Structures are given as C-alpha cells and as structure tokens.
TrEMBL record:
This is Multidrug resistance protein MdtA. One of its GO terms (cellular component) is efflux pump complex. Belongs to the membrane fusion protein (MFP) (TC 8.A.1) family. InterPro entries: MdtA-like_BSH (IPR058625), RND_pump_MFP (IPR006143). NCBIfam families: RND_mfp. GO terms for molecular function: efflux transmembrane transporter activity. It holds the Pfam family BSH_RND. Residues 66-245 form the Multidrug resistance protein MdtA-like barrel-sandwich hybrid domain. Coiled coil: none annotated. It comes from Methylophaga muralis.
C-alpha cells in the first residue's frame, strides 16, 4: 500500500518546491518614498516690547470697618427699625429697647446721690454748730473749775460738806468731757467729709452709669453703612452682651485676593512707592480697585500672600462676601511678547517654525495682556526666542519637534 501512495506524495512535494522557488526569485518592484504631508498653520512674528502684564486674581470683598452691635443692658426689644441689606446713615435709630428697667435704676441712683448730699450738708451744719458752741463750752468748763475751787476752800474751812465738793468735781468732769467731745468732733470733721465725698463720687458714678444705660436702650448707627445681619426681633428679651445687629461701612470695602509668590517679586518694590491699579467686571459694571498693601499674615496653605485692594468710587450694589475676579496691572516688563492663548502648549512651551518644521521653545508666562483692540492675550518672555522669529498660533493636537508645517498665506 505504501508503494501505491508514494508517487502522488512525491508529486505534491515537488510542486511545493517549485512554487517556493518562483516566489523567492521573482523581481522586486522599486519602492518610492512618500512625501510627508505638511500641516497648515497660522503664525505670528516675534516682536519684543515693554508691556504691562495683567494678573487675574480671585477673592472676596471684606469690610475692615464692621460693627457687631451688642446689648449693653438687659431689656425687652420694643422696636427694630431696619432689615438686612438696608442702608443707614450715622445716627439713624436701629433698635429701641424697653427703658423702664433702666429708668428705675436711674431713679434709684439719683435718690442715693441726693441722700449723700443731705448728709454732707448736715455734717457742714454740725461743724458750724460745734464751732459756735466751743467757746461757750470752754466758759462752762472754767465756771465748773471755779466752783470746785470754792467748794474745796469751804470744805477746808468746814463750811460745806464733802458731798458738795464731790458734786462740783463731777460737774467739772462732765463739762470737760463735753468740751473734749466737741473738740474731737471738729477735728474729725475733715475725715467724715472725705468719706461722704467718696460716697458721693461713687453715687455720682452710679448715676452716670444709669444715665448711660438709659441712653443705650436706643441703639443708633455708628456710621453710614449697610446692615449685613440682625439677630433679634420685636418682643425678644436680650441680656448684656447679646448680639443684636451687624453693619459695615460701604465706603471702606476691600477686596482680599491671594497673589502667587512668583509675582510678589515685582510687586514688593512698587508698593513701597505707589499703589497698583486693578479693574473688575461685576454684574455688567466695571469697578476700579487699588492694591494698597499686602496682608500681615501668610497663610501656611498658600504659596503667596493676600493682597488688599481698596475700592475706588461708589460701591453701588456690592456687598461683603461677594466673590470677585479682578485684573491687576503689574509694572512694565522689558522684552515681553504678547501671543494668543492658542500659541501656548502645556504650561511653558511654544513652537517656532524653521525651514517649515516645528521646533519647541521654552517660555515663561508673566501674565495676561489686553491689546489696543481690547483682545486678551498672553504675555511671555523667553531667552531662546529672537526678534522676528515665527511661532505657530494654531493649537495642533500632534505638535512635536520636526513636524512639517505650511504657513498660511505663503
């Protein structure tokens, strides 16, 4: 059977060998290099200039002049005359408290002062009385002494009894005691007056405090401003120190915005001599701000410092806590280049065109810039770019070094 199958197998093997030989020895078609297709791009010529970059910052409005009004007395709330968001003038009545308790305290303090004044008057009258009676009392002492002398002579002459002498001596001692008492009263008068005057000063202070407490039952606006919140309503009972209302001075609004550390190097020396201007577009209205100072405390979680911008002009509808985007105009920077945002690749790269091929160039961003037409552009600097260089402004998803490009218009 093997002999029967062998001839067909040999034929198949021979055919495979012949086919392989023909394939391997066939002539190769010549290959042609396909030219790479150039990408059409927009470009810009590099033109160095001294330009002022603008820095976009974000922050919130604050009011350094903000008053937290609190109750100075314990009383019931009679009336609340203002509401949240309402504008008030200095001296406007905001809250009225029930004055009855304060009036009672005032009446009591006035009565205490009147009582002490009466005691002082009585002491002065007693002094005059003691001084008037002092000479008379001295005469009575002299008479008593003379009576004792007569009684002693009579007793020695046995013309009077011992009892009469004792009675004369007792009367003399009583008169001496009365005289000394009046003398002591006169000597102690300054001490008693000083004590009464001290009590009077204390009573006067209590009266002044009571008058002040009575006046504090009417709470007025300490300055022109806007009510930001109120914590009480008519009928509430408030204790000393309870929060009543908060208002802030609208003319002293400030914007607090964080400034990155890399921009502070340029800002520090300028702020020592002058302020920097900034603008913000809020609710369709443009506002002017002025960077006056930097915060005195650095936030540990932020690489930079807060800048404090004073609002220039009227605040209009602006309110404390409002989120604001502001454009700060920085000092001029030499050798600056204004480019479209689309020209930047990543964070620090543009592409220069040389011999119709792309070449990556490192750049550093220094801020934004508004050109004469009001268009917003990016301001950069680079030591690797030269005056007149051409960079692409088209954002290509596959931009790499060596990519072939074709410039529009050429």
């Amino acid at each position: 059977m093997i002999k029967r199958l062998l001839p067909p197998l040999l034929v198949v093997a021979l055919a495979i060998v012949i086919f392989s030989t023909l394939i391997s020895t066939r002539p190769q078609a010549p290959t042609q290099d396909r030219p790479s297709q150039a990408v059409l791009v927009d470009t810009q010529r590099i033109d160095f200039a001294d330009l002022s970059p603008t820095l976009t910052l974000y922050g919130r409005l604050e009011a350094p002049q903000m008053a937290n009004l609190r109750a100075a007395v314990t009383a019931d709330v009679l009336e609340v005359h203002v509401f949240d968001g309402q504008q008030v003038k200095q001296g406007d009545v905001l809250i009225e408290l029930d004055p009855q308790e304060a009036q009672l305290a005032l009446d009591q303090a006035a009565a205490e002062l009147a009582l002490i004044d009466a005691q002082i008057a009585a002491e002065q009258s007693q002094l005059k009385r003691n001084e008037a009676l002092l000479s008379t009392q001295q005469q009575l002492v002299d008479l008593a002494k003379a009576a004792v002398n007569r009684a002693e002579k009579l007793q020695q002459s046995q013309l009077s009894s011992q009892a009469l002498l004792d009675e004369s001596i007792s009367l003399q001692q009583q008169q001496n005691l009365t005289l000394k008492q009046r003398q002591f009263d006169i000597q102690d008068h300054p001490i008693r007056i000083a004590e009464l005057n001290a009590r009077r000063q204390q009573a006067q202070a209590q009266l002044n405090r009571a008058e002040l407490d009575l006046s504090r039952t009417v709470i007025t606006a300490p300055f022109d401003g806007r009510i930001s919140s109120r914590q009480i309503a008519k009928g509430d009972r408030v204790q000393i120190g309870d929060a009543l209302m908060t208002l802030y001075d609208m003319q002293q609004l400030e914007l607090r915005a964080s400034i990155s550390q890399r921009y502070l190097v340029d800002i520090y020396p300028v702020l020592e001599k002058q302020s920097l201007n900034a603008t913000a577009q809020i609710a369709g209205q443009q506002y002017q701000f002025e960077l006056q100072r930097l915060a005195g405390e650095v936030n540990a979680n932020v690489a930079g410092r807060d800048g404090l911008f004073r609002l220039k002009g009227e605040p209009g509808p602006l309110a404390v806590g409002e989120f604001v985007s502001v454009q700060l105009t920085l000092p001029q920077r030499g050798n600056s280049i204004a480019i479209p945002y689309s020209a930047l690749y990543g964070l620090d790269r543009v592409y220069r065109v040389r011999d119709n091929r792309l070449e990556a160039v490192q750049v550093s961003k220094i801020g934004d810039y508004s050109d004469q037409d009001g268009k917003s552009r990016l301001l950069i600097q680079s030591q690797d770019l030269q005056q007149g260089d051409i960079i692409i402004t088209t954002q290509l998803p596959n931009a790499i070094n060596g990519l072939a490009v074709s410039v529009k218009g050429e």
